[in-house]
Each structure stands twice: as C-alpha cells, then as structure tokens.
Amino acid sequence: MVKHTIQIFGRIKPTKKTTTVYSVDNEEQTGASLEFVVPRDLADGFVNNKRECYKFRFQKVFDQAVKQEEIFENIAKPVADSVLAGYNGTIFAYGQTGSGKTFTVTGGAERYSDRGIIPRTLSYLFERFSQDSSMVYNTHISYLEIYNEMGYDLLDSRHEASRLEDLPKVMIMEDPDQNIHLRNLSLQPSANEEEALNLLFLGDTNRMIAETPMNQASTRSHCVFTVHLCRREPGSATLRRSKLHLVDLAGSDRVSKTGLNGQLLTEAKYINLSLHYLEQVIIALSEKNRSHIPYRNSMLTSVLRDSLGGNCMTTMIATMAVDKRNLDESISTCRFAQRVALIKNEAILNEELDPALQIARLKREIQSLKEELAMLTGEQRDDQLTVEEIQKLEELVKTFLDDRDPDVTLSLGPDMRKIQYCFSLLRMMIMDKHGGGNGRSDGSPAETVREEVIQDSYHSAAEVTKLKTMLKQRDNEISILVKMLKKEKKRAQDAGYRSTDTISADHGGRAMQYMKRGPQLSMGKQEAFETFIRDHEDHLAIEDNKNLLKQRSAEARRLGEQLNEARNRINELKKKLEMQRRQRAAHGVMGNHTEAEEEVDPVEENLCKHIEHEKKAYKSTIGCLKALRTEIEHLQLLLERAKVKLQKDFHKWWSQEEASSVQESESEAATRCRAGSPSGTLQPSSPGTPGFG
Length: 693
Ligand code: ADP
Ligand code: MG
Hints:
Layout lengths: L1 E4 L1 E6 L9 E4 L6 E6 L2 H4 L9 E6 L1 E3 L5 H18 L3 E6 L6 H5 L11 H15 L4 E12 L2 E4 L17 E4 L5 E4 L4 E2 L3 H18 L6 H4 L1 E11 L5 E11 L5 E2 L13 E2 L2 H14 L12 H5 L9 E8 L6 H14 L3 E4 L3 E3 L1 H23 L9 H16 L13 H19 L10 H50 L5 H16 L7 H13 L3 H52 L2 H6 L3 H74 L18
Parallel strand pairs: 2-6, 2-17, 7-14, 7-17
Antiparallel strand pairs: 1-18, 3-4, 4-5, 8-9, 8-12, 8-13, 10-11, 13-14, 14-19, 15-16
The structure holds adenosine-5'-diphosphate and magnesium ion.
C-alpha cells in the first residue's frame, strides 16, 4: 500500500498582454509557490482591510512558456508508471472556462506538438507494453461524459443516429462492497496506440456534435477518459488490473450575488452544481474526524470516489488565466487546490487471481495428491508382480525407449512395485550396453599414443565415410536433375509460347523467396526445388494469393491515407463550428440573446451535419481497414502454410526419387557387369510423384 496526498500542479495559460500581477517560484525546497498581487485599481473602491497578496503552494507551477512535452514528463508519466505497476491513477484538470483544461488534457487541435496528456500517455503505455515481452497486457478504453447529472457514453455508436437525450444513460450501480459499477458505459478493446487514439478522436467528435447553444456541454460537462489495464505473466494465475482516469472537468466559473464590480468573488457559487458537490466532498475529506463523505450527492463524485481519498494515486492540475479580469477565478482555483492537497489517498496494488487458471492449477494438484494418496494407502497387493504384469511392463519400457518424441513419458500409475521394476529393467539395459568394458588401460605413455593413433584412424575413417555418403548424394541429385531436365524439354516442346529461360529465372527468384526461412539446400537440390515449385499443384493458388496480398496491402495504404484526410477535414469543420459558436455567444452578450439562443443557427446546423457525414465516412473507413487487416493477416498465414506444405512435399518427393535412383544405378551396374559395358545410359522414366505436374 502506498499512502500519499493528492499532488497539485499549477499551469498558467499564455496571455498576450504582459501582466505583472503574479510571480512563480519553483526554487523553494518544499515545492513551488504562486503569488498573486492584486493591483490597486482592481481592489479599488473596496474597503481598507482588503488583502492584496495571495500566496499558494504547489508541487510545481508551470508558467506560460511551458510546453506540452514537459507537462507530460512531469505530471502524467509518473502516474502512467504507477498504473503500469498495477496501481490506479487519476489526473484531473480544474479551472475556469478557457483556462486551458482541454488543451492540457486532450491537446490543441492544430499541431502535433500540442497534443495533450491523453495521446501522449497512450503512446507511452503502448510503447512500454512492446518493450516488456515478459508480460501480456490487455487494454480497454471508456469515455464518459457527465452533463447535468446524466452520464453519456461518448463511444456509443448510436451517437450518430440519435439525439443526446435519446441515448441510454450511464447509470451508477453499487455492489455490497460499495464498489462502483457503471452500467451502459462501453469498454472498447484497443490492441494498439492507433486504435486507442481513434477512440479518443471519435469520442471528442461525438461530444462536439451533441453540443448546442442550449447545452454548453464543452464548458459545463465533465469528461472522464479511462484506460483499463490488465497485466499478467504468461501461464501465471495472478493478474493485475489498474485504471487510469484522465479527467477534463467542467469550467469552475462562479457567479456572484453582487455582480462583477471590481470586488473579489470569494463567496461566489459555482455555475456547475456538480463542482459544488465536488468541493463539498473535498472539504469533508480535508477535515479531520469526518466520518461521512457525501460521495453519493453527484455522479461525478461517485465516479471519482476512489480517486478522492481512496485506492488511487491522484494528481490535480489547476489551470489558470492570469489577465486581470480572470484574477478572481484564478485565486478561487488556487484555494480549491490547497484543499485538495490535504487529501490522503491509499493506493493498493490491484492483484487478483484468475479463477479459471486457478481452477486448472488446483485440479492438477488434486490429481497428483490423489495419486500420492493411492500410493500411500493403496489396497494390499501381492509382493510379486504377475507374469502378465511383467510382460506388459517390458512392452511399455520398449515403446518408451523406441519413441522418438522427446516429451514421451512412461506412465505406470500409483504402483511402487511397477515403478521399481521398470527402473531395474532400465538399469539392466544400460549396464548391458556398456558391458564388456572390463579391460582397463594402464595409462602409460605408450598406451596414450596407441589410443591417439586409434582415434586418428577412427576420425579419418569417419571422414571417408562422410565423403562417400556425400558423393552418393550428389550422384543421386544429378540423376534426378537429368530426369527432370528431360521432362522439362518435353514440356517446352509441347507448349512453345513461353521460353524456358524466363520461366526458370522467374521461379528461381521465387524459390529463393520461399526458402528464405527454410533449411539450406545444396545447389542441385535447390534447383530441383525451384522446378518442383513451378510444377506443384498449389502453384497457381499461391501466386493468386500473393498477388491478392499485394493488392490488399496497397489498398490498406490507400485507406490509411484516406483516414488521415478525413481526420483533417473533421478537425477543420470543428474549428469552424467553434468559431461560429463563439460569434453567436458574443452576439448573445451584446443584446437580444434570448432569441439568438433559442433559434437554431442554420450555419451551425449545416456544419454539424457536415461533421456527422464526415464522421460516418471516417468510421466506415476504419471498419474497412480493420476488415482488410484481418484479410491481410489471413493471406499471410495461408502463404506461410503453403510454404511449409511445399517444402514437405518436396522432401517427400526427393527421398522417393533418391530411392528409385539408387535402385536404378544398382540394376544398371548389374547389367554393366553382365554385358561388360563401361557406362550405361539413363533410362527415361516418369518420376511418378504425388502432387507433381
Ligand atoms: P478550457 O478547456 O479550460 O475551457 P481550452 O483548453 O479550451 O480551455 O483553452 C482555451 C483556448 O486557449 C484554446 O484555444 C486553447 O488552444 C488555448 N490554450 C490553452 N492553454 C494553452 C497553452 N498552454 N498554450 C497555447 N494555447 C493554449
Ligand atoms: Mg474545455
């Protein structure tokens, strides 16, 4: 168990105006501090005892110029590491609307370097999986949006067809152990980084589409992107499950009772009710001796229950804008962060046993215990084995010894007499084999020399035998090749439309390809193999599959490019939509905003439709690409199998040819002897092999 308080970090959004109202000190030994100095004109008109200086402590404060990479390295990477180790982790961004929460969590839409914590973390996790081959990792993604106390599955495919209100709501269920389960929230498997990023992209697009001027979802809703990780050692029954929540909270903007007239809004209320409940939970947690924590008051606090004062390593990022008009909100954000920093969490390693594997292991154990028991308490037997039993055992030992399978076992059951008998049988056999070795050498130098001479002659004799065998093999090869050549010539005469040269060159290359990972062949055999491939009955099918594989790979590349283009188009449209909404909002502030808000803006509607349309195309391309990948993998397997079959058939055919060549040369030699002729001519013969022709 790891006890720790929630880590708090501050991030300041870049601002165009130079502002001197704050200062950052990251050099302090106990962490960092952020100080605001409220200028006179802001506090103006307010009474004398107004404080002007506000100082807050953080683990670290990231000033305006800090890049996304540094944010990931400092904040997200340590959390990702503990999630990899099997602990739960949460990172949440808190701050007023426009302060950079989404930029920090998800990233900016334009530049690759602006990608935020989620894509960087996904990339990091999948990279780590690929580096660690000793473990099997399994990843699922879920993406939840909470708006107005309702939960929506951002990865629900029905988002396309239905309005937000018509989608099934995500419900909170609590089991007797007070564990939270989310019903109707899908867990999407993601095998690699690309799939996980696609899910993020689709979820974000769904979120944007569902938004209307009436429901300002992007500022008023919370988004919880969760990576569910399962890690196990192959063959082991224990597994570790951990969850990483990456949370983009609703804007923490507050309203004042008195309005914005230069006064600091210390008593203001949240616009968002669930942030109010979040604050209550945090206050309760930071107070000593509070037994009741009001988690159940809102969906957000229920979902984040473990992240707040529970089994989780939690980190908060307070995002702030420091231009003068946002100072009060930034100070509220810091105050909230200070309370959060008091919360203590206890993260535990989430290790559990896989029941199925555990059962299999226990079954094996029971079986071996049963055998042991039978051995110890087994029924009374005669001391001696019967003649039949002995005969049977001898047969068993013989088959055991004759079996070429390295994994062969000798199963004798729980009978010690049989086990002992077999051991003594084996012992006898071994002694027999080494038997007769009674004559010992005296170890004298003369003896040693004699031994060396014997050894040498033994070696050269072995060498000669080896060479003789090789010679014989080559003879066989030559005679098989001559036969093939004859057949080849005849074929070329029959079908004159293709020159033999091009064919063999073509197939030589191909044969090499097939043999890339196969055993090394001698030159003659290699040539025979090349011709064999061309004549093989599977040849056409293999060629077809290879061409298909080429086509499919090209298609996959093309689809990949299409996917990229569609993604860019969607991003472009999203930008336009956001611009349009901003303009509308500004228009609403200027006056007659009730009408403006309620009317449906045709431009906006059109953009939404367009995005919807593009997204459908995007998803269908992903579908095609997935299907194509499956096909490509399948084709690769087919080719691999064909290769193995080809090699097997070839070796079979080759050994048959060899056998028949040996026979022929023997009978020729006999004929020669009888006729006294010095050399014979090869008889034309049909190879007559299966799968040839
Ligand atoms: P929030 O999600 O808190 O409402 P956003 O993340 O949408 O705020 O940020 C508002 C705008 O400011 C966006 O256009 C975003 O790209 C920009 N922005 C925020 N933080 C940064 C930053 N650190 N660097 C550059 N641009 C930023
Ligand atoms: Mg946002």
